[in-house]
């Protein structure tokens, strides 16, 4: 019976009346009430479904607009990455957080949350507990951002374009960026998704640089393989398909809206994978470091956007 209720709740996320923030909270509550379907690999499901949703939404983005948008905010993207990594190093030392954990949290905050941590962790031979702690802090703040950012955006009366840029720069994981932007509006969704994936491309150079530096400090360490998340390439390919064959726009619109709804399912599953134990694991100095980095990039990028407008 409990498993059936879980699946009914998940199926309700496919309806147009369910929003991303509500789905996240509903998934969390379902698990808290013991409705979790047992040994199901939710994390694996989310990773694959989120990738499919992002690629589907790529069909709804104009290539020329995406290139222009990314070029307009390239300076902000680079500045936010560099500033966040420097701040992570300084604050990590001040709070006596292990340098590897600080670097992982800084990388996740600067670029793409869990994806960046997963890519950079092996490059610097991070231990399992360091990866888990960094993931827990970023995961917790992702859930907060999904609910808080739209509220702040409406309170400050941000237009959809500005909110989309802000979400792409200041929220960690792609899922929460897209979820928060979807709750704000279609224009915010397209802007946020495009810029977020442009920001995520920096995973590769940062991972390569991290591996080079680690191997320089640890000459006996083995080499690592750095890869780019497949959904980024798929998103770019979807935009190219739309650009080359624009006559199929109605079909692309259907794919775009289908991707948006699949994202709501992903947020439900993310909520279902949360627990009080995981939230408690993100405590202490590491969580304080993550919160301060998040506030820094959030407040700094918002101030830049407001002053530039």
Automatic annotation (TrEMBL):
Keywords: Cell membrane, Membrane, Transmembrane, Transmembrane helix. It comes from the Bacteria. Its main location: membrane. GO terms for cellular component: plasma membrane. InterPro entries: UPF0324_pro. It is a multi-pass membrane protein. It holds the Pfam family Cons_hypoth698. It is found in: Cell membrane. The chain crosses the membrane at residues 42-61, 73-91, 103-124, 131-152, 197-214, 226-245, 261-279, 286-307. Belongs to the UPF0324 family. This is YeiH family protein.
